[in-house]
Amino acid sequence: MSEPLLLEASSLVKTYRLAGRGPFARKSLRPALAGVSFVMRQGRSFGIVGESGSGKSTLARIVLALDRPDSGAVRLEGRSLLDLPRRELRAARAHMQMVFQDPYGSLDPRQRIEKIVAEPLAALGRSGRAERRARVKDALEAVGLKAADALKHPHEFSGGQRQRIAIARALITRPKLVVADEPVSALDVSVQAQALNLMSDLEREAGVTFLLISHDLAVVAHLCEATAVMYRGRIVEIGRTAELFTRPAHPYTRELVEATPRLDRPMRVASFAPSNGGPEATDGCPYAGRCAFVHPRCLKQLPVLESKGDGGREVACHYPLG
Amino acid sequence: MLLEVADLAVDLPTPQRWRRVVDRTSFSLAEGESLGVVGESGSGKTMTALALMALAPEGARISGSIRFEKRELVGLCEEAMRQLRGDRIAMVFQEPMTALNPLHSVGAQVAEPLMLHRGMTRSEARRRAVELLEHVHLTEPERAARSYPFALSGGERQRAMIAMAIGCSPRLVIADEPTTALDVTVQARILALIDSLRAESGMAMLLVSHDLAVIAGHCDRVIVMYAGIVMESGPVDIVLREPKNPYTVALLEARPRPDAPRGARLATIPGAPPVAYDHRAGCPFAGRCALTIDRCWSTPPPEVAVGPVHVSRCHRAGEVGLAQ
Predict the structure, then answer these.
(1) Mutation test of the interface with chain A: which of B139, B166, B184, B195, choosing the one with the most A Cβ atoms within 10 A?
(2) How many beta carbons lie within 10 A of that of residue B134, not counting itself?
(3) pLDDT averaged over chain B?
(4) For residue A106, what pLDDT is reported?
């Protein structure tokens, strides 16, 4: 753990106001993040897993300073992103980029690849045409495409190649951090393997560290040494990815592991288990309504992340498994 | 046999010529059995499912034979097909938000096939719809029946779709990527629900998926499709353990495994699937296969029996296996 700190997220809270039904209905508050903290080191890609509504995409937006938290802090290499003046924030954005899930929707079909890939540079507002050309060429070659591809349009590429283009676009500013939100879930298995190998190579050779957000534990395990499991806006377990998978300590992590389809064993899930966990308890564990091991204490007292064993494992559960 | 498909071919019109998207596809399904159809995008798996329901796109040309309950479906008139759909054969689609009508309540949509095929009155059908919604374990089935699709979560919508599908006790349900848009925990519950409904009613299932592991847990047999043809077919456990087609092997080896060491190289399949494959020429996988020999380019691969009910369409089927 001697690598320098890359990103620190501390106590992030974000609440969205949901409009009620009808003009006079009370607006309800929905916490998307309820106190999320984690640390990423350079060269150590970090995974976030959780289901829809767990707050993982909100977290991505806040890390990239696309959205402000209600409270908490985000530091990139020690500098707080939230306090930066606009111009310096722009400069800081050069160090962090984003890759989206859908390689079809995120590339403008009317533009040439050159313009699409160079877009983050234009947003930074410097660099001449010659330099831009050269950097587009470098970025395309880094993802295994040819310099000549710069003159083509998105429709001339397959889905896997388009995701490479999206990754090239993220690399053009030579970022230290790339936030990848479900980068391979829309791809076929054969193409997904190429994209995952590419991300591994970039981490090793181009000094890019990924914050990889996915619902698929196997995808995360491939790239990330450590992973946080999120449930309803909270990190419920954090630790080495391989160990989370083999020995989950939080009942929700275990549910995720058991629900993941595997070739070697059938799933063990009841068809009638509640899928949404019912209304959220005001106090108590947010997972209590769905937990197979719930105790009375779980309904009254909110469990906080506490370290369990060695290897940096932390779990927010009154009665951790194993 | 409940369903027998022989030499099915689907041609789609393009401005220049016909494009064959499914070719030489044969399989059968016994009462109560479940068959998985696996393949990547463009493999023809969805088109095969649509052809069975006579729901292929306008202008598509279907040839070969589809016999369901001893009745030939190819060439059957639309009226007769409509009698079968939603009654003897039901379908569950990938995206229930688009498959359900946003302007009608969930209860009305579940009730519709009951009025159409069972001659129930509106109020009888509505009552039965609530029972069906309860049967698929929707909490508060009355509330769900009154709701419109947008008010339900993705998992709840898929349960409603399933309630609609099973209303008339079909003998065959065709499920096309029924859980692809859902969270893994919700996916696991929906698949378990389908399993339990099949166990109590004995309906057969054709499950179309891009995910071999989903098929592994829920099907008796599997067919692996590529470029519109069946590359391999057999019992699920045998095909996954001892695949005899290079494409199946490549699909299995490209899967990221949760227990693999971090940064381990995944096997990739070089190149991309053929956009327009000439079905009279060689093997569609030849350009991407590590075992390609001259014959693969010139002669369509034959169906080789590699086990009692295990067939691989490959010139070198006998030499293929997983790298260990």
Answers:
(1) B184
(2) 16
(3) 91
(4) 78
The two structure tokens encoding residue A41: 């080191």
Following CA atoms A278, A284, A290, A294 in sequence, which dihedral angle do they give, to the nearest 10 degrees? -140
What is the distance between the terminal CA atoms of chain A, rounded to a whole angstrom?
26
Q: How far apart are CA B24 and CA B5, in angstroms?
A: 10
A221 inside 8 A of chain B by CB: yes
Ordered alpha helix ranges (H), chain B:
45-52, 78-84, 96-99, 106-118, 122-135, 141-146, 154-166, 184-201, 212-218, 236-241, 246-254, 294-298
| Nearest neighbour of B258 by CB, restricted to A192, A217, A259 | A217
CA distance B125 to B107: 9
The Cα A75–Cα A87 span in angstroms is: 17
Q: Convert the pLDDT of each residue in A200-225 to its tens digit.
A: 988 988 889 999 999 888 889 889 98
A279 touches chain B (CB under 8 A): no
Q: Are B23 and B229 within 8 A, CB to CB?
A: yes
Which single residue is written with the structure tokens 């995206």?
Answer: B95
48-67 of A, contacting B, C-beta below 8 A = 51-52
What's chain B's Rg over C-alpha atoms?
21
- B302, B313 in Cβ contact below 8 A? yes
Tokens of B315: 């010139």
